[in-house]
């Protein structure tokens, strides 16, 4: 289990982890955790390997360690 703290980009409240994703109690809004490449800014594909997450950039064509990715919390758009 990750112990990292995750905060709402809108109100800076701590996000709650739910089965569908992160949720801000204050804003009543679900958020998606997305990772972007530090070097080219492309959205990374998350890979699960042996319990630890790593990220793959299809643009750089290489695996990125957590220190080389930019984590962004994006509001989950309502399905129309
Ligand atoms: Zn919030
Ligand atoms: Zn890249």
From TrEMBL:
A UniProt-annotated Pfam family: Zn_ribbon_6
Entries under InterPro entries matching the protein: DUF1407/YfgJ-like_sf (IPR029037), YfgJ-like (IPR010807)
Assigned keywords, A-Z: Ligase
Top-rank taxon, per record: Bacteria
TM spans (from-to): none
One Gene Ontology molecular-function label: ligase activity
SUPFAM superfamilies named in the record: YfgJ-like (SSF161187)
UniProt name for this protein: DNA ligase
Biological classification of the source: Bacteria, Pseudomonadati, Pseudomonadota, Gammaproteobacteria, Vibrionales
